[in-house]
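Reader question, answered in our methods column.
A reader sent in the components of a multi-part assembly and asked whether the whole thing could be modeled at once rather than chain by chain. We filled in our standard form and ran it. Here is what they sent:
COMPLEX SIZE: two components
ENTRIES:
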Amino acid sequence: MKRSSIPLLITLAVVVFLHAPLVVLIVNSFNASRFGGTWEGFTWTWYEKLWQAGDVWDSVVVTLKVAIGATLASMLLGTLAALALHRFRSRLQSVHHTLVMMPLALPDILMGMSLLALFVALGVQTGMLTIWIAHTTFCTSYVAMVVLGRLQDFDFTLLDAARDLGANRSQAARKVLIPLLAPGILAGGLLAFTLSIDDYVITFFVSGPGTTTLPLRVASMMKTSRNLPVINALSTLMISLTFIAAALSFRLQRRSS
Amino acid sequence: MKFLIPLLLFTVSAFGAETLHVYTWADYVSPDVITKFERANDCKVVIDTFDSNETMYAKLKAGATGYDLIFPTSYMIQLMEQEGLLLDLDSARLSNLKFIDPDILTKVHDRTMKRSVPYTLGYAVIAYRKDKVKDPQPTWAMFDRADLSQRITLFDDMRETIGAALKFLGHSINTRDDAQLAAAKEVLLRWKKNAAKFDNEGYKAGLDSGEFRLVHGYSGDLFQVTQQNDKVGILIPREGVTASCDEMVIPKSSPQPALAHALINFLLDPKVAAENMEWMGYLCPNTEALKLVGKDFLENPAVTIPAEIKAKSEVIQDLGPDIAKYTKVWDAVKSE
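And here is the structure of the entire assembly that came back:
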């Protein structure tokens, strides 16, 4: 039987489309040319400069702290919001639904400005705390969306069955509801993590002294830095870490099943 | 919610008594210079970065505080001053002000350094590929050259690009005259036909690789390209150029105005300024420091421009409501 070559072609096109930019970036992290226009020989310079670039690492630390904090908080809040939205159909909940979904539609610049105005009015000094609150705000919406999707297929009679068999409310939630929702919550959390890590606009407004995140630093480096390829080197390290982590989790999953 | 506690602690610890917060462009002050300052003053310096004057201004205007020293571009300082955001500098604490090039002070908005002190000076000039451009001439008319068609980039910046056209015609880059602006528009429409694109970032890589043969760019950036690639040359248009000056200001909300003054004075010290400008690759208008920098740096045409062209150069000024005249020309050029 002759197989169609179309699926293969499409796969190839997708791989090239998605990964060609990454390949260029990785190659340029070893390119002696500062501008990456031409290949001028192999070098470790950018990795050495990255090692010495304390301010870039400071930004990485700030970014990761915020991303982890916002992911955990939004997983909790987003799941609770999704449960409330799914179980109760009152007028209050339809208002709630609109409010939760609002950050998805609201332009980032509006959200950034209004959050900053709020923090200023409250007299809160912008910094790590305000970035964390802002990121949790928009990440919660995404987690709620994903978990809500998962809940659509959720069979609530399972909870009734658990209660019939003698579980109390919290036991039913812990042993039945949470494990079944976990993939949705985790997927939402991962989405929140990636959104938090590369948010620029909102972060710009709510960041304060000492909390320049990586996207803010990179945007400024584009304008004035002589060492922009340092970012290529950092990205290459991050891509490698992601690949290793993905490969490890894939292995673990296979072993457990 | 245990993870919250270290977060909160971090927020609090970032505001210790002896921390100076600098808000500037990335890699704009040498880390060695900062370390020396920290040692001399027994303090910690934290540097945050922004990437556009406009967003930085919007953020401060909305009430963001905590920064002690900011490095905006001259035209934005005018606006910040009008909004009452800036502290009056105490010249008694700034003994090194005397080293600032008096020439640049005739061009910036704050000529007496009452609220701002010039830090770096750059020009918008032309760079070209020596191997691909025949008969290069130091004039803005290069953008009219038919043989370079589609190999040219112009700034995607309203004031810089209209400024180049105005200079080409012999007018001021801060003109409010409608007829002069209309003439500039005609020139720009002609240049646009020749240009591959309007570009602010990619021109450096494009020139390095040879994709572009003639670019409109900032002298500091182009200096970096010439260091990298000896096939790249710089042309300083004889009609005069636009100059841009980033300056140091202290916002009224600064928690550490005394330390901020100390850092301004430190950065103006000739030895420090010389070390600093060689590290970052931008020119500091500091007459004593320029005597101390290496020859390579000083002799580069992007750094030292001929005196008669320097005399014809101007700094972009804020024009208030008349800026609408420029917006109209720019919209017409971009949309046609």
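What stands out: Strands of chain B lie at 19-24, 44-49, 69-70, 117-129, 152-154, 195-198, 214-218, 232-235, 242-248, 314-315. Chain B has 15 helices and ten strands.
Send us your own complexes using the same form.
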